[in-house]
Amino acid sequence: MAAPPKDGKLAQWFHRRGWQDMIIGIPYLWLILFFLFPFCIVVAMSVATRTPTAPPFGFGGENPIINLAGYARLFHDTLYIRAFLTSIVNAAGATLLCLVVGYPMALGLTRVSKGSRNILLMLVILPFWTSFLLRVYAWMGLMAKNSWFNGLLTDAYNFLTPAAWAVKSIPMMHTNFAVVVVMLYTYLPFMILPLYANLERLDRTLDEAAMDLGSKPAQVFRDITLPQSIPGIIAGGLLVFIPAAGELVIPTLVGDASSPMIGRVISDEFTAASDWPMASSVAVALLLLMVGPMMVYTHYQSKAEGKAAEEQK
Length: 313
Known about the structure:
Blueprint: H1 9-46, E1 49-50, E2 57-58, H2 69-76, H3 78-109, H4 114-125, H5 132-142, H6 148-160, H7 176-200, H8 204-212, H9 217-228, H10 230-245, H11 249-254, H12 262-270, H13 276-312
Antiparallel strand pairs: 1-2
């Protein structure tokens, strides 16, 4: 009786490591197709020359193969300098406010019962179930001059600062204040969830031991809870700061047109000015400015985790 045929090398490899390699390779394939390849196209456009043809850029011929004029303008044109500074300041303000508001909420989530915790977590995620534009338009209505919200704040301001004259309404719309407030509301869950995931893993017995040794709650938080939650603070800060710095919709709807953020500048360069090389240069600079610190943090965080693992061995 003939022996059954043996599997080939390809079949053996597929049975041993094929599925594992395929599963690992899917994220890499996704990143190559939807991040690396489009990024290479944007980088190529950033060194092109603007032309009146369609597409409005070209390489070679009458135009130089590599044109770095767009990158040079980033350091000389005040429009881009002010836009980058405005974006960083607004994003940093929104990130700081998200931390101030989100940290107590995340800490509170770890202190309640599991039943209440699930309900509160659902309430944190609930805004994602509604349209992003609808939520921004709702804030536009709240911050309008004749809204009840503006009237309430105006009455409170007039009560706290009595003077010979009274403020009729507080100008909130089309200001950086409005941008920061709406970004605080929009990105607050991105700060709460990483902080909650970090704080939930902390060993509560350390707090109890410190309390038994005579430490006050404020000292326990300062010496034990806060240092251990720094990875969660950094993760939440990156998740808020990076998208907030490149935000387009919020600054366009509620921001000051005379002081645009960098996302609005990129959009205007692509559409109104039809200067694709300049818009690509700004986009590349923004990506490097945002991703660079995150890569440095990830590198040193991996080294710290590896060093800690070696010390435990």
